């Protein structure tokens, strides 16, 4: 049994994390921090916690003062807010899983360019491990600072990794057209996130300079063994949860779908959370689970491959993957607390 | 470990049942029957089963021939279809949990009047127990034939039981205005259930003679100790899951909300799945769980009490309650396999 | 051709008003006022105005200074904000149509009790006319200050008026269970109105003391010829637009549905915007129109009548009715600019 | 005043057409044909027609027998069903606007390959004009057989035409990632179109061989002056209406967004229905209108241009464009009956 604390526990990812950790047999939640809801009881903010999780959210000071009582902390904070807490926690021997962007990019300058803030803990960039468990499992196990991947990068990198590993697509041909449910925009009181502004509409946003772009390029580049650039366009879809990443690449050689099925199934053969489909994925089949569904089609006419992946942005794209990382960090079975399937509807 | 079979496993309640039983530590699913998808693999119909439940749906004959291999069957079939299977199963010592309406009404004539079909197994009506666990727990434990309650009656009876038990409302004053998500209409290819016909609209339907009316009246009457009639109006709401039952009654005496809180909390004090709120319920807080949330308001101006309850129609209103009944039937802990909270969004 | 100004033109009702007035052949929009978007161009806030309405929102001072350039103003402001503007406008001979609540209740004390603010222009309460055109047409024509009805009251009063006029229901038996789309909550950046908080859920709110209660009671009382009280429970439904008002009353005498059809059709026989159905209404059939659909059922078992009405809360429940009032005030054909049907989906 | 008939008037495009023609000042609807609802009254199927359009749908025979009473017919039928009616109508001097696919592809073999049926009226392929009004206006005016464009092609061709006309993108680099609301799937009682199957999910479908592909290629090829192939992936989005087409192409030369604005605005400078935005489009701003919004971004890093267009699939993508074509055919002002803006929410 280990003790954990959550910073930013009232955001959508943070509350999902509390939900998962509550059900996790090896975890004791020591504190839940919230900026906006300090001293509120959890079930006043999230009614699903009624009768199950009924403690008070603590403020930042109290949470930091409790660092010496926990084994691990999860940071679900806006970017730029993780530096100090992380340094303090690590100095106390507390492991850190950051769901934000502060330790994902290996390069300080790239971080500062894309995020527009100074990086205040650059010395930690060498220590942090990009926590995409399926690709970095062994490094994660030995780390004490995990940069939990972004939601779009998780879906996209898992979709494209086998192609790049096998050099099956041209590295300058990658186009990623991704779609996210509204929870990806977070629980902030913005006009743009109101029900009537999102419902019955779809839009592209943030292109071509969305902040997940360098993260995708960095990790895909490592797999490809070369620097690469992608076109990445996120869209907002009227649904609560889910990411669908539709990826295009020009094939380097003719290949048929059966061969590609073999390659993908081999690549992910030991992965509990990645399922290779013969159909194209739908986000509903993974909603509420830590799974990633991947399907593809080869277009012989154009010589392109179409790969589509689906995840739940709050679980495999955030809180679930964070717990998967925690399981690795502490030597638990990787799937512990994460074995729930999607409820389909 | 016991063996179970599901008849009608591709309907929305049936698939939810497969999902719950798959996760239940004491259950082995022996067969899944489907009329429309015989010989399909489960994951062809429900993609969330990919990699987890991948067997073939069997036809009715094969399912019936397998009755001697199971300890319990769940029937998730249209009304009028449970008679023969139930008789056969009981004769083989197999316990039966019927999610349909065929054994809910104690009176053959009332069944035939409201459902418009002949009741072909009237001798079993004396044996069947109305499986609303919170109210009939002891009888359920000793039964072998459970009539799993309808979704609207579950929410409504739980909401009104304390008031009627304590004779706090006039029995001729009850009005029930209920709202359901679209999954309540089932997985049939009807125009009226198409996305574009249900989305962005709300309507009342079936009133004043919806078939859940006599079921509500029968069970509320037992609690009140007298025959009673209610006005019951169901509505269709553009969401997948959830029932909200808004109930009105004229108080027999002045009472304040604090007293009523005490009465409700006392009434349900040992119930894991029923939560009494100080706020009014929202279906999202119970969606994906076996919980029932209940809240109320007293209107001193009009002398009426307003009680609102919320459940997930596919879980507490169908498959979850069926498993709760099964747990009672077989002496498992009542909450086994049902301890998942709502994911909130 | 008359000149009009809108105060509060960026709220959901205000923008709908701009839309309708833009298409109205007799109206020239002189100014659009907005507090939050002063100096923004209209199409920056509402993209549907691109290429059609592209002027700047003006602040309150500029709007008030322009009063002498217009014939009529529409106020779509929070309650308590209409007093001063109204007095100024009337003194200049400008007619006022207030979409808010400040002039709906005839009694100053009742207003102050329910709204919790002082009424600063009580002398105008005698002048203002409750702008439910179907019931108060002649008074409206002679007025210069219209209190445009609330959305819930519009649907509810139209539903119940024929019953009360004919003394067919007991005045102490009225229960109103109403459901609204999320636009009814307005365009404010509240957490509770976020997409993920409203989607896939239904809840009751505000009961039993929602501020539309005294308005409903006042107007129904006038029709009944006696004071009366109602139980009124509003609900929030995951859809953009629409109100469904489900009303219950105990019949004073036996009557069948055919007779009631006659009574309703006779009552509304000259009304373009009210349609009496043989089915129960669905909000989709009126969404995007100024129509009110009414249907009903008699429950012989309980002796109650169920009346259901449907409107678009932003049109017949706000901006459309405001324009209908304006047409009456200025002697235009009552339906001018309002003859668009619902687009169904 | 001209007389019109609609074949297939109860489908989603067909009912939208009835709605528009009902409001059109120059049109008298002579008959509405429906296969599934023959002899039903229109308002029994579409409640929004209550009190406005209340006639009976006629069967195919009666509709064909009425051809000599009309000036124009609209065909909103499944592909393969337009051949015979079209020949008959043209022989009687009746103009034909086909909303289906039967006359869109100039080449009989390509039609038969992609649609899997024999083309039974190949001699008409030379006569038919592809009815994308903005590009083919003059030809349309002189024709008597209009092939009304598909919904995806309309949005996509309008988005890419200026780029191809100016040879700004490589013709082998075009990737089209399109998203449609569920009404695009039609009003058929399919499980896949049920509310609970579409809601809260997004999926790609039909790729890489969706039937709109050759149509897009044919028309873009004409603009480019060379044969070309595109990658086209449609997606299903949980909303009633709307298409968003996200298009990618590799620039042939460096260009900045200001220059591109000029090019697009010049290209569409006389077009009432096409609006060039500085932002990226959202489908809600065009929903319920005949408009097409187009926006774009240049990605200097990758040398690609991103063009996004939005239409209402039932209006500019079907019924609205059909009426636009009719207006051209009969010499009415092109915008007659189509001047309604989107209602935004």
UniProtKB/TrEMBL annotation, chains A, B, C, D:
<dbReference type="Pfam" id="PF22698">
    <property type="entry name" value="Semialdhyde_dhC_1"/>
</dbReference>
<dbReference type="InterPro" id="IPR000706">
    <property type="entry name" value="AGPR_type-1"/>
</dbReference>
<dbReference type="Pfam" id="PF01118">
    <property type="entry name" value="Semialdhyde_dh"/>
</dbReference>
<dbReference type="InterPro" id="IPR000534">
    <property type="entry name" value="Semialdehyde_DH_NAD-bd"/>
</dbReference>
<protein>
    <recommendedName>
        <fullName>N-acetyl-gamma-glutamyl-phosphate reductase</fullName>
        <ecNumber>1.2.1.38</ecNumber>
    </recommendedName>
</protein>
<dbReference type="InterPro" id="IPR023013">
    <property type="entry name" value="AGPR_AS"/>
</dbReference>
<dbReference type="InterPro" id="IPR050085">
    <property type="entry name" value="AGPR"/>
</dbReference>
<dbReference type="InterPro" id="IPR058924">
    <property type="entry name" value="AGPR_dimerisation_dom"/>
</dbReference>
<keyword id="KW-0055">Arginine biosynthesis</keyword>
<comment type="similarity">
    <text>Belongs to the NAGSA dehydrogenase family. Type 1 subfamily.</text>
</comment>
<dbReference type="GO" id="GO:0003942">
    <property type="term" value="F:N-acetyl-gamma-glutamyl-phosphate reductase activity"/>
</dbReference>
<keyword id="KW-0560">Oxidoreductase</keyword>
<comment type="function">
    <text>Catalyzes the NADPH-dependent reduction of N-acetyl-5-glutamyl phosphate to yield N-acetyl-L-glutamate 5-semialdehyde.</text>
</comment>
<keyword id="KW-0028">Amino-acid biosynthesis</keyword>
<feature type="domain" description="Semialdehyde dehydrogenase NAD-binding">
    <location>
        <begin position="3"/>
        <end position="143"/>
    </location>
</feature>
<keyword id="KW-0963">Cytoplasm</keyword>
<comment type="pathway">
    <text>Amino-acid biosynthesis; L-arginine biosynthesis; N(2)-acetyl-L-ornithine from L-glutamate: step 3/4.</text>
</comment>
<feature type="active site">
    <location>
        <position position="151"/>
    </location>
</feature>
<keyword id="KW-0521">NADP</keyword>
<dbReference type="InterPro" id="IPR036291">
    <property type="entry name" value="NAD(P)-bd_dom_sf"/>
</dbReference>
């Amino acid at each position: 049994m280990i003790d954990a604390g959550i910073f930013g526990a009232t955001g959508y990812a943070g509350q999902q994390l509390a939900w998962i950790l509550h059900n996790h047999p090896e975890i004791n939640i020591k504190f839940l921090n919230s900026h906006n809801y300090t001293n509120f009881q959890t079930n006043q903010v999230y009614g699903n916690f009624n009768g199950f999780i009924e403690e008070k959210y603590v403020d930042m000071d109290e949470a930091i003062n409790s660092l010496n009582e926990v084994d691990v902390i999860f940071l679900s904070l806006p970017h730029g807010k993780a530096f100090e807490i992380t340094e303090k926690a690590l100095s106390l021997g507390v492991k850190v899983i950051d769901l934000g962007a502060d330790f994902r990019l290996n390069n300080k300058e790239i971080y500062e360019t894309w995020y527009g803030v100074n990086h205040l803990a650059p010395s930690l960039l060498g220590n942090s491990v990009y926590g995409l468990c399926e690709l970095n499992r062994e490094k994660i196990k030995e780390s004490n600072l995990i940069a939990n991947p972004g939601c779009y990068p998780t879906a996209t990198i898992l979709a494209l990794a086998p192609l790049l590993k096998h050099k099956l697509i041209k590295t300058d041909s990658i186009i990623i057209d991704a779609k996210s449910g509204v929870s990806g925009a977070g629980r902030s009181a913005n006009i743009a996130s109101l029900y009537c502004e999102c419902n019955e509409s779809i839009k592209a946003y943030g292109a071509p300079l969305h902040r997940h772009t360098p993260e995708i390029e960095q990790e895909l580049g490592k797999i490809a063994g070369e620097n690469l650039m992608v076109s990445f366009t996120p869209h907002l879809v009227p649904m609560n949860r889910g990411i669908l990443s539709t990826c295009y690449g020009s094939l380097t050689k003719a290949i048929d779908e059966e061969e590609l099925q073999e390659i993908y199934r081999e690549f992910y053969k030991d992965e509990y959370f990645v399922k290779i489909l013969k159909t194209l994925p739908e986000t509903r089949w993974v909603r509420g689970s830590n799974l990633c569904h991947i399907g593809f089609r080869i277009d012989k006419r154009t010589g392109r491959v179409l790969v589509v992946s689906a995840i739940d942005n709050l679980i495999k794209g955030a809180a679930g993957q964070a717990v998967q990382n925690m399981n690795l960090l502490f030597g638990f079975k990787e799937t512990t607390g994460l074995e729930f399937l999607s409820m389909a509807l």
